[in-house]
Amino acid sequence: MVYLTRKIEFSASHLYHNPAFSAEENRRVFGKCNNPHGHGHNYVLEVTVAGEPDPATGMVLDLKELKEILQREVTDRMDHRFLNYEVPELAGQIPTCENIATVIWRLLEPKITRGHLSRVRLYETPDLFVDCYGAGNGAAGSAGAAR
Amino acid sequence: MKLLLWRRYRFSASHRLHSAQLSEEVNQRVYGKCNNPYGHGHNYFVEVAVSGPVDPSTGMIANLVDLDAFVEREVIEPFDHKYLNEEVAEFRENVPTTEIVCMEIFNRLRHFPKARLERVRVEETERNSFEYAGESEGVNHD
Hints:
The complex is a heterodimer.
Chain A: E1 2-14, H1 23-30, E2 39-51, H2 63-78, E3 81-82, H3 83-86, H4 97-108, E4 116-125, E5 128-133, H5 141-145
Parallel strand pairs in A: 1-3
Antiparallel strand pairs in A: 1-2, 2-4, 4-5
Chain B: E1 2-15, H1 24-31, E2 40-51, H2 64-79, E3 82-83, H3 84-87, H4 90-93, H5 98-109, E4 116-123, E5 129-132
Parallel strand pairs in B: 1-3
Antiparallel strand pairs in B: 1-2, 2-4, 4-5
């Protein structure tokens, strides 16, 4: 098995607000992220695909194909967007790194038809990022399998 | 689906690699420059991964305010701008190589009450890093 990773960036704004919470509770739980005007990040996305290289091409999948999938599924949807209002897949959710990574996983997973999606790593900042692994591919090690 | 929430922290500290179980000569040979009796320092980076269910009302595995406060109290405050060999009790007996520092940080963080600790990764320099996921759980670098 070989693991291939491609990195892209997108910039987007968001805010954290739960309408079920009081204004005070929103401020307490979400802090600065509750600013009603929103704020933004330069997100960095690393997408890892696992598979066996095709003997004829030496490739797990054609990077050109992966690049197009990422452009269509992620960049076109999220780049320079206000995630709360402009990305339907996030409607009704708090657009945390956890939730955005999960949405990206669900968008990409069915589109990767050569090899399989192994990991999505989404950086909100260099100091905060989330890894998303599929169920049962063992990618998170035995710690993942045990849960 | 499984999620890991990673957070990156930093501290600066000095240490000396010297084992009481080895002779001066062997210490010198094994640890080289790191055996300098006056010690030396690094800017360490620590990456901490936790897992758990995402709370639908917050979208979070753990609130970073809680994680940051816990890591600050358990690791950053006791380690930052310290001489690890003398000022952190666990390193009086155990040579504070970054392997040992990484395992000690994991042990200090394993009781984080809001999520499950999965991994700790420590960079001693840009070129050297160490990762630990606890005893019963092998690290898979997938």
